[in-house]
Structures are given as C-alpha cells and as structure tokens.
Amino acid sequence: MEHIKLSVDKTLSFVSREEIFKFKEESKKHLTALHEGTGKGNDYTGWVELPSQITAAELKDIQETANNLKERVEVLVVIGIGGSYLGAKAVNDALANNFDMLQADNENPLVLYAGQNISEDYLYELMEILENIEFGICVISKSGTTTEPALAFRLLKELLEEGVGKEEAKERIVAITDESKGALRTLADQEGYKTFIIPDNVGGRYSVLTPVGLLPIAVAGHDITKLVEGAKSMQEYTFATNFEENPALLYAATRNALYAKGKGIEILANYNPKLHNIAEWWKQLYGESEGKELKGIFPASVDLTSDLHSMGQYIQEGQRNIFETVISIAKTKHKVVIPEDKDNLDKLNFLAGKRVDEVNKMAELGTQLAHVDGGVPNLKIELPELNEFYIGELLYFFEIACGVSGYILNVNPFDQPGVEAYKSNMFALLEKPGFEEETKKIKERL
Ligand SMILES: O=P(O)(O)OC[C@H]1O[C@](O)(CO)[C@@H](O)[C@@H]1O
C-alpha cells in the first residue's frame, strides 16, 4: 500500500541527522502518550483513535442525513468558525472541481460558509443570494456559544423560516454540537433539529473526522468512507512504524530541530490551488496547538507559483528565520499538452508537446533548490494523487505530528486559552450583561 511520503533531505544542510535523531526516543514516547492518553491535555485526545473507531452505522447516519439535505436544497450553508468549518472547507476545496460554482449540472448542493466572520456586507450579500435559492443550514459549534456562528445562525434561521415555513426549515437544519451543554444544544432540542454530537474529548481543530467535517463533505458529494479509510491507514502506519520511516515523527522532530536553530516560521507551500484551504486548516491546527507560553513556530502559507510573484522575493532573500514545507501532488487528475505555435512569438515552442504539469513540477523543483540555496530549509510531503484516501492520510498525519510536536515543545497542544482575550474585550466594548467591570475598565483606555 502506497502512503503519502515525507522527505527531509533538503533540510540536512541546515540541521544534522543527529540533531533530528536527537528527538527519536522522545517523539516515540510522545506518540505512545497520545495513544494511551497519558500526556498533557489528555482529556482532548479522543481524535487519536477516531479513524479506527468510527462505525459503519455512524457513517451511514451521516450519509443519509446528507442525502436528505441533497434532495431538499441547492445550497447548504455551513455555519461555524475555526475548527468548526476549516476542515470541511479544506477537504471540499481539495476534492472539488476548481470551477464548481459554475457547474450547473452539479448534482450535489453547493456548500457555502458563514459564521466565520462578522462582516455585515458578507452576511447581507449571502442573504440576498439565499432569498432566491433553496437552501439548508448545517450549524456547527462545539461550545454552542461562539458569537460569530450564533449571530449568523440567528439571521439565516429567520430567513429560512420566513421562506419555507418552520416545519420545512426544521428538515433543512442540522446542528452539530455538544451532547448536553451550550445554547445550540438547547435550541436544537427545543426546535427538534437533527443533531450530531462532537465528542467531549475531541477539540474543534481536531474534529474534521467527526460529523463536523464529514457531514458537509458528504453533502458536497465526496466519499467519506474513503476519507476515513485514508486516515485509518495513516493511524495504523504512524503507530507501527520506526522513527526512521515514520513521517509524523520525522516531521515533528525535524521542525523542532529547525526551530532550535532559530527557524521560527514555517511556510506551508502548494503548487495546486485546490490545496489553499488545507493550509488554512493546518494554520489553525499548528497555531492554536503550539503558539503559547511565548513559544511555537508561526505557521504561514503560500500558493505557488502565484506567490512567487509576491512573497518569492522575501522567501529567497528576507530574514533567514523561515523554513518551508511543500505539499506536492505526484499525479494530476487531467492532462493538458502545450501546443506548438507557428509564430512562436512567446518563445515557448521549447515546451511544445510537454504536459503543463511537467512545467509545474520543474517550477517546484527549481524553487525548492533556489530556496535551499537562499538559506531556507525545505521539507516535502508527497501525495500520490489528490483523492479522498490521500487527503484522509494527510489530515491524520498533520494531526498526529502536531500532537507529538506540541509535546516536544512541552506545551499542551489541546487548549487555546489565548483566544479568550479578544472575546472578553469585544463583550466589554459591546456592554454584554455580566461584563460591567470590564466595560468600565476598557472604556477608560479608549
Ligand atoms: O466550535 P466552537 O465552540 O464554536 O469554537 C470554534 C473555534 O473557536 C475556538 O474555540 C477558539 O478560536 C477554536 O478552538 C474553535 O475551533
């Protein structure tokens, strides 16, 4: 069985094998701690065994709910923020046609997103479009109390009920939340919505393989069974493989070896625009897991070759505190051959007869070598092709490596206390009941 592959060769002129292998025993110990639930934040490690624990009955329930929505709606609005939408968006964009929105014969509803910002224009324009469309809502919030999705849901629920009536709206709304706590649970029970549970021991950013990710992915028409199979294969592979061949342990060890050498920024790069939102999902995963106690590698991302014409200059010659991890797709889905042109004014006839992907691959290799020459260590993650199985492998690989890497840093990779600071200021400024003291204090600062 072929797996996704990690190569760290192009980091070895910056860190030695010994510096990476220094983390060998420690990283193995951390992997065991994740599987046994004995490390920091162990009440949130339910995601570790998730791929092997999901039952066929659970997947069937998710698929049937998706099918019911597919019959009723042209658009499904997924309402959620952070881990409550990034995984679904990442997978849906990675697997969809680039121009999905324009494919009129698409038999699957278009999945749109809301509740991931508080932009009045975004919400206005979304509601304007939805007024003339058969739509449904999948509202996702683990805590059930997050302001952004709650606000969007209040508006879209009203719009839907006005458009199709309360009874039909009930059939088109699915809520994914905590089993018993939070405002969304109370509301969903009161209104009688179909609900799915986010397990207590799975945090938002590790929840893509629960109904949080799986339902919107199934609605978009992708194969959730294959996605879970991919994740399960990576679960088994990373659990059973020696450090030397274990992509998750090597990734965690190499990035920590580079961090110890002053490389404090990791840029995740791709050469396929479908992967843009995989990087957005990865940024939350690593940013919230590691960025604490004044520590952590800052996760950034670029889409190439596009950003070689914007960020390329900095990566090549700016401050030397960065390293780059490239996600590369070995085989494209389609074939486009470059034609011969009799006038050859663009001087591109030397490429005639070659595939566009060959040009892309040479751009990738050329960039990697240039960046290494410029002082940027490079890691490469290769997927044989872009499909459900390998995306499943990639998601689990990043998750398990993140847990190990966080433990190497000696932080709790499963909490995010820093996120509360903006919330409490926002509530104080908006004079939320219960925040009277904070309101008084913050107003004195303005
Ligand atoms: O699902 P919830 O509880 O609405 O939270 C959404 C997001 O907010 C955070 O709690 C803080 O940003 C994230 O960890 C989480 O993914």
UniProtKB/TrEMBL annotation:
A single MF term (Gene Ontology): monosaccharide binding
GO terms under biological process: gluconeogenesis; glucose 6-phosphate metabolic process; glycolytic process
Pathway(s) it belongs to: Carbohydrate biosynthesis; gluconeogenesis; Carbohydrate degradation; glycolysis; D-glyceraldehyde 3-phosphate and glycerone phosphate from D-glucose: step 2/4
Example of a GO cellular component annotation carried by this entry: cytosol
Positions of the catalytic residues: 288 (proton donor), 423
This protein's UniProt keywords: Cytoplasm, Gluconeogenesis, Glycolysis, Isomerase
EC number(s) stated in the UniProt entry for this protein: 5.3.1.9
Domain of life the protein comes from: Bacteria
Pfam families: PGI (PF00342)
Reaction catalysed by this enzyme: alpha-D-glucose 6-phosphate = beta-D-fructose 6-phosphate
Functional summary from the UniProt entry: Catalyzes the reversible isomerization of glucose-6-phosphate to fructose-6-phosphate.
Family per record: Belongs to the GPI family.
Protein name: Glucose-6-phosphate isomerase
